[in-house]
Amino acid sequence: MKLLYVGKTKDVFEIEEKDGIGYVGKFVMHFKDSATGYIVDKGKPTERVVFDSGYDTVVGEIPGKGIVDRQSTEYFFSLLGKKDIPTHFIEGLDERRIIVEPAVLFSLENEAEEFEGSANLHNLEVVFRRNYYGSLWRRHPHKKPGSSLNNLVEIYSKGLPNEPDILMRDDTLIELGIMKPKEIEEVKTMTKRVADILSEEFTRRNLHLIDGKIEVGKRKSDGKIMVIDEISTSVFRTCKGFVPDEKGNCTVYKDCIKTDYKDGKRTIIAKNLLNADQIAEVFGFKYDPKR
Questions:
Q1: Number of other residues whose CB lies within 10 A of the CB of residue 5
Q2: What are the angstrom distances between the C-alpha of 166 and each of 200, 230, 241, 270?
Q3: In what order do the strands lie in the sheet containing 97-100?
Q4: Are 209 and 198 spatial neighbours (Cβ–Cβ below 8 Å)?
Q5: Is residue 172 packed enough to be buried (19+ CB in 10 Å), middle (13-18) or exposed (0-12)?
Q6: Which one-letter DSSP state was computed for residue 241?
Q7: Neighbouring-strand partners of residue 129
Q8: What does 1-13 look like in DSSP terms, one character per residue?
Q9: How far is it, in rounded angstroms, from Cα 286 to Cα 10?
Q10: Is the whole model's pTM more than 0.70, yes or no?
């Protein structure tokens, strides 16, 4: 196979005739155990690593993470495929690799390389939000945490290492030539459907899906917009014990969510959130270290 891209958590290869597995010209994604996140109290005795998929810096490895990520990605892509949501997933290859359709990314080439701090825009992340929480509440702290949202969709460009992702206005995406108005509308409509499908799947397991993120691209062969990259358990924010009213607002938010405001910074945390490992356990995604 021809190595095309070495990523932080995945490597991408192009399948060649000599590989003998068919699908010549299609891509293989290999899931690694490396994990992104940030370091708290770096250089101090209290230093600790926090794994968080929302950050772009690799801070360590989690044994078996790549295997679990591949399992969950295949599961959720297959689920979306059954619901007629276009994805780049073709089939699984082994416990760490899947075969996917080549995709053209919604990207922007760096035209200012001579300027310090300039960068390429490699792809977009599309976030769906079903309840007020996280950065949305920190930006707009005007409604009760846990309030229902109608699958609010936000599009972000990936931030530089150690920097947050950047919320993109529709007009900015159009003006920079990253997306066309029709493409923005198609992506948002598709993302809302994805959110509904995934939410139903989580509800079947007595969990509530608060928000999540996907990546999108255009199929190289015909330009059709599809869900790409991965859909692992680390891209979801999920809780247990959610009790909605008739409008979908959480009625027990006071027992779960705590906010604070110090030194000009808002924080919001919820005690009933599940981490990626806990979500994987509920769905039955697992890594056997004895294999």
A1: 12
A2: 29, 20, 31, 24
A3: 2-6, 10-14, 27-31, 97-100, 89-94
A4: yes
A5: middle
A6: S
A7: 152, 211
A8: -EEEEE-SSEEEE
A9: 18
A10: yes
Distance from chain centroid for Cα 227: 11
Q: How far apart (Å, rounded) are the C-alpha atoms in residues 222 and 288?
A: 40
Which positions ≥6 away from 283 have C-beta within 8 Å? 72, 75, 205, 233
Positive or negative, the CA dihedral 144, 150, 151, 157 is negative
Query: Could you tell me which of 122, 123, 118 has the C-alpha nearest to residue 216?
Result: 123
Residue type present at position 132: Y
Integer CA distances (angstroms), 88 to 26, 122, 156, 225, 284, in order? 10, 17, 20, 10, 23
What H or E segment, with its residue span, contains residue 138? helix 134-139
- Count of Cβ atoms closer than 10 Å to residue 264 Cβ: 5
Q: What is the pLDDT along the chain (291 residues), one digit of tens a residue?
A: 999 988 888 999 999 999 999 999 999 999 999 888 778 778 787 878 777 766 677 888 888 999 999 999 999 999 999 999 999 999 999 999 999 999 999 999 999 999 998 888 989 999 999 999 999 999 999 999 999 999 999 999 987 766 778 999 999 999 999 999 999 999 999 999 999 999 999 999 999 999 999 999 999 999 999 999 999 999 999 999 899 999 999 999 999 999 999 999 999 999 999 999 999 999 999 987 655
Scan for tokens 């959130």, then name that residue: 273
User: Residue 270 is encoded by which pair of tokens?
Assistant: 């919820």
98, two tokens:
């899947």
May I ask the CATH architecture of the domain 2-109+120-283?
2-Layer Sandwich (3.30)
Closest to 164 measured CA to CA, from 140, 135, 187: 135
Query: Backbone phi, then psi, for 64, in 5-degree steps?
Result: 85, -5
